[in-house]
Backbone:
């Protein structure tokens, strides 16, 4: 009670002494700090678990614990998610997008800490996924719940969700600008100048929090020694196309693997089969363990010869062609390993795996070309980093985020031109074959979808139940024309639903259908309604979204359509009622 009194007094003081804009700015800073703190806890927790589990492993021996670690981590994450947190793991970013679009930006409070714990167990024990998505969910949940605490509307809560996402990504990568653009490009559908400032503040405070607590502990460590050469552009063109094709494979591999895993009705079987398969993959290819950023750092520094040292089955082989084979297999198996981790019950995301696959692809391309010794040598670090950008742009449909993220973590903008070029080529190549991002595909697989424009978003806020008209008078199919004439006398509508005793819709009748015979006394006594009725051009379901409803209106050309629920007639919906509701919401949105 004391807590509620304090919040109430604080809000009253705020209304008297502080504008909404300044209040949002303060909240964005707080959210950035909390998101940064959560990111630090998660990063350090994962590193501690991984070091504890693998520091005694010997390269020259087969480390069989790789096989059982994923089963342990995924099992622990699933048990905590289901029985303690009541928050099942899986993909995080699609859920955040759906929450903003369909659930008034209300994220359950448990998500402010549940994903930190479950993803630490998943990734720490070898789950081949990234920490960015769980961290983004945590930051978004912090923003949403703070918005609820201070009684902000759904639009402001969505902005605070974006602030939490920006603060989390900035804290992980140390890339404030890239984090802001990611929040705008992926999380928020629209943004204004006034909304842009809170995102900047949250991103900066998230990055500063991480920097203060753990120093400049960056994800990638390297020093670019080569300068960009225009003569490399033809190779970047080829790389961009390869990144787009790889992005397409990545998305299809993830979706298909998850579909296969969903075929197991028992969650226990998913954990056992998924964890075991992942364990055997790690056993033969240890670089796939966890996020895999250590492998990328090794490639960026030009230490590819040490890559095979991590595997006892390949460490004795010094043939450079074996490196090509090894990396090619990693590209093919990494998306499958990520999907196995998530569908088995682990918590994580595909953000880091897409960067990982991109980095491997870029290095493989440049390394293979240099082995041929044709034309000019290609800088391995440049192509590794640029391909990371390309695959991220293709998988997540976030080209701007990919460009600025990689540009920032390189410590400068030496690669800005190839980053822009490869990102654009990859995005165009991927979208030519597959329109939707992996996040959108995952939502559609669950029967969900996201509005593509602000207009669709506003339209989806209107439910069928809100616009149902129930003043249309029904008539039984066995009734006579005379009975219908009696209804016409008292009705203000020109449509009459034909409904049986079980409230099933049998058809409809309009005044136009009876205009020629309605004054014929003989037919009034002899003609039955079922001989006059006809089927409506379309029928709406009460649980249908408004976008599908409008498609039916457009397809049929009708102005009024009947609505049924569980097979029973409940009313009609008219275009004019929908447009009126849309207009009211549009005016309300402009005032917010």
Residues:
């Amino acid at each position: 009670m004391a807590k509620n009194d304090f919040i109430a007094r604080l809000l009253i003081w705020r209304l008297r002494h502080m504008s909404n804009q300044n209040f949002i700015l303060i909240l964005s800073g707080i959210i950035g700090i909390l998101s940064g703190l959560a990111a630090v806890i998660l990063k350090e927790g994962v590193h501690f678990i991984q070091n504890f589990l693998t520091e005694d492993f010997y390269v020259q021996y087969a480390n069989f614990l790789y096989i059982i670690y994923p089963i342990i981590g995924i099992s622990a994450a699933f048990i905590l998610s289901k029985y303690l947190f009541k928050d099942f793991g899986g993909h995080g970013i699609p859920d955040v997008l759906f929450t903003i679009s369909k659930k008034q930006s209300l994220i359950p409070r448990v998500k402010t800490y549940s994903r930190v714990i479950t993803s630490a167990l998943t990734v720490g024990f070898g789950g081949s996924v990234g920490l960015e998505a769980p961290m983004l969910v945590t930051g978004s949940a912090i923003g949403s719940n703070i918005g609820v605490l201070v009684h902000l509307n759904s639009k402001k809560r969505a902005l605070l969700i974006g602030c939490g996402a920006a603060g989390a990504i900035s804290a992980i990568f140390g890339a404030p600008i890239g984090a802001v653009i990611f929040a705008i490009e992926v999380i928020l559908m629209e943004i204004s100048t006034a909304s842009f400032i809170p995102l900047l503040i949250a991103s900066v405070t998230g990055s500063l929090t991480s920097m203060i607590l753990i120093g400049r502990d960056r994800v990638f460590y390297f020093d670019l020694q080569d300068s960009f050469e225009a003569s490399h552009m033809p190779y970047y063109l080829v790389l961009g196309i390869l990144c787009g094709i790889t992005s397409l494979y990545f998305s299809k591999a993830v979706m298909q693997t998850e579909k296969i895993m969903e075929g197991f009705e028992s969650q226990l079987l998913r954990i056992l089969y998924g964890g075991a398969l992942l364990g055997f993959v790690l056993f033969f290819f240890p670089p796939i363990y966890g996020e895999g950023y250590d492998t990328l750092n090794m490639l960026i520094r030009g230490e590819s010869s040490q890559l095979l040292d991590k595997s006892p089955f390949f460490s004795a082989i010094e043939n450079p062609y074996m490196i090509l084979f090894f990396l090619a297999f990693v590209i093919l198996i990494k998306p499958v390993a990520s999907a196995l981790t998530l569908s088995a019950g682990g918590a994580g995301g595909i953000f880091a795996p897409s960067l990982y696959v991109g980095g491997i692809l870029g290095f493989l391309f440049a390394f293979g070309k240099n082995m041929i010794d044709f034309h000019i040598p290609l800088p391995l670090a440049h192509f590794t980093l640029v391909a990371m950008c390309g695959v991220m742009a293709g998988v997540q449909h976030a080209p701007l985020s990919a460009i600025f993220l990689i540009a920032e973590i390189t410590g400068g903008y030496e690669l800005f031109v190839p980053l822009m070029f490869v990102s654009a080529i990859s995005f165009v190549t991927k979208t030519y074959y597959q329109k939707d991002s992996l996040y959108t595909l995952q939502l559609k697989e669950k029967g969900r979808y996201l509005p593509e424009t602000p207009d669709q978003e506003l339209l989806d806020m209107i439910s069928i139940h809100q616009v149902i008209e129930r003043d249309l008078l029904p008539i039984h199919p066995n009734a006579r024309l005379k009975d219908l004439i009696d209804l016409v006398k008292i009705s203000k509508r020109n449509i009459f639903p034909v409904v049986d005793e079980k409230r099933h819709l049998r058809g409809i009748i309009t005044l136009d259908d009876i205009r020629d015979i309605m004054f014929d006394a003989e037919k009034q006594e002899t003609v039955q309604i079922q001989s006059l009725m006809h089927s409506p051009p379309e029928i709406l379901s009460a649980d249908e979204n408004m976008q599908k409803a409008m498609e039916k209106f457009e397809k049929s050309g009708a102005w009024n359509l009947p609505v049924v629920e569980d097979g029973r007639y409940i009313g009609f919906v008219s275009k004019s009622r929908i447009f009126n509701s849309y207009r009211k919401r549009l005016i309300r949105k402009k005032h917010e």
Notes: The CA atoms of residues 362 and 383 lie 5 Å apart. The two ends are 30 Å apart (CA to CA). Residues 20-54 form the longest helix (35 residues).
